[in-house]
Amino acid sequence: MRETLDQWAFVWAAYAIGIVGTLAMVAWAWWSMRRAEARREKSRER
Amino acid sequence: MHGFANPARFLRIARWLTPLCLAVGLVLTAAALTYGLFFAPADRLMGDTVRILFIHVPSAWLGMAGWTTIAGASLVELVWRHPLAGIAARAAAAPGAVFTALCLATGSIWGRPTWGTWWVWDGRLTSMLVLLFLYFGYIALADATRGEGGSSGRVAAIFGIVGAVNVPIINRSVVWWNSLHQPPSITMGQSAIDPAFLWPLLIATFGFTLIFAGVILARMRAILADIQAEARLRRKAMAQG
C-alpha cells in the first residue's frame, strides 16, 4: 500500500518553524541589547 | 578595517546600521517567503514541497556563514588582537546555531515527503549536525573562558579556527559521498534552478543575511554595553572601598 502525504502540511510546518525561529531570535537579540544598554546608562547615573 | 576596531566608532555606526539591517532584512524575507508560499509554481518532481527551499537554503547558507564569521574573527583576534574581533566571534555563535538548527529542522520536514524518511546518516546531514554540536561547544567554551574586555578568549578562538574544517566538508559532502541529498544546484556563475525559483531564492537569502547581520550587530552592542557597565561598577566599587 502506498502512503499518501499531504504536502501542504509539511510546507506549513517548515514555514512556521522557520518564521517563528527567526522572529524569536530577532526579538531576543533586540531586547537583550536594549536591556544591556539601559543597564550601562543606569551604571553611569549611580 | 583597523579603523572599525575602535569600539566608539563601531557603536556610532552600529546604532543606525542595526535597525536598518533588521528592517530591510525582515521586509525582503517576508516578500520572498510570501512569493514562495503563495505564488511560486509547484515543481514537476517535488510538487508543493519545493516551497521549503526558500527557508531551508538560506538557513543552510547562514549556518555555514556563521561559523566562517567565527573562524575569521577568531583569526583576527589572535593575529591582530583587535578588541572587537573576539566580541564579533562570540556574537555570531547564537544566530549561527539558530540557523543551523532551522536548516536541520526544515530539511528533515522536507525529507519526509520527498525521500520517505525524516533522517539519514549521510555525509551532508551528519556534517550539518556536527556543525550544530560545534556551535554548542563554542558557545559553552567562549562563555567559560571569556577574556578581559569581553572577547571569546584564546582557547575559544583556536576552537573556532579548528572547527572551520567542517565547513568545506559540509559544502563538498554531496560530491564526495553518495547521498540522498541533491548535488549543489548553484555553483560559481552557474545555476540549475529555474528563474521562477532562483530570483526569489536569492532575495530570501539576501533578506535572511541582513537579519543575520542585524542580530550579530545587536549581540555585539549588548556584549559591549555589558562590559562597559561592569567596568564602571568595578571602578566605583574600588573608589569606594
Would you write up a description of this structure?
The complex is a heterodimer of chains A (46) and B (241). Chain A is mainly alpha-helical. Chain A is 85% helix and 0% strand. Chain A has one helix at 7-45. The longest helix of chain A is centred in the middle third of the chain and has 39 residues, at 7-45. Chain A is rod-shaped, with a radius of gyration of 21 Å. In chain A, 24% of the residues are buried. The model of chain A has no long low-confidence stretch (mean pLDDT 90). Chain B starts with 6 loop residues before the first helix and ends with a helix. Chain B has 241 residues and is an all-alpha fold. Chain B has a single domain (25-39, 46-182, 195-240), classed as Four Helix Bundle (Hemerythrin (Met), subunit A) (Up-down Bundle), CATH 1.20.120. The model of chain B has no long low-confidence stretch (mean pLDDT 90). In chain B, a hairpin with a 2-residue loop joins strand 1 and strand 2. In chain B, helix 1 runs antiparallel to helix 7 and helix 2 packs antiparallel against helix 3 (83-115). Chain B is 76% helix and 2% strand.
